What we know:
Rossmann fold, 2 domains, 6-stranded parallel sheet, 3-stranded mixed sheet
Amino acid sequence: xxxxxxxxxxxxxxxxxxxxxxxxxxxxxxxxxxxxxxxxxxxxxxxxxxxxxxxxxxxxxxxxxxxxxxxxxxxxxxxxxxxxxxxxxxxxxxxxxxxxxxxxxxxxxxxxxxxxxxxxxxxxxxxxxxxxxxxxxxxxxxxxxxxxxxxxxxxxxxxxxxxxxxxxxxxxxxxxxxxxxxxxxxxxxxxxxxxxxxxxxxxxxxxxxxxxxxxxxxxxxxxxxxxxxxxxxxxxxxxxxxxxxxxxxxxxxxxxxxxxxxxxxxxxxxxxxxxxxxxxxxxxxxx
Length: 287
């Protein structure tokens, strides 16, 4: 066993998948889920994500050597603040949030008295489905997990959190919180923005009701992530707003350039544009 007691703060898709990964690989003696609804206890235990669930924060985190915060980013700091009186001094806390600058800064300030250690994490894994019923023990297998230690992070905390993610199959990438937010603003947040915009525009009920019948594989694949959990994505886009806005502006410029090629019937340059896009996509996929 790598861990004695692991607490999941939130047992949805990511929290549930972490619990399943820990229990399947026998990496924790006990996995406990802290949830808000009585019904969630039964759902989490039935899915096999936890050994036990509770509504009581003290019962959830007391004695835990690892606490995994798996909630929308806007809730993380306040929830850890509730945990703080019951944390072991040597407890390690991490999260799965898609935004890091604000979370890391506020978590480190909250725990500055030496109560536990926080290292930010972001596993690049998930899906459009939510809830523990959609969880999978293999969700993190082969996925990149970014960790965002700072100058305040001890070598021990960095090593322990890295060991945790690699033990459930993830591949580590270490970035600063700012680097993380800038990079995922383009690679993760912009695609969701594009998918949401397409779904809202093309599936507008004010348009011809026959239009959705013509939405096939390309539309399905491009807009899949627009079905993601709304509160989570709202928080992500607001907390990483400066990067999201810059990415949208750059994408609009790209669309404008493409629009000009089409409007001017510029076959040569349109072919070159599409070919370059295709080659970049194929090269990325082959890695």
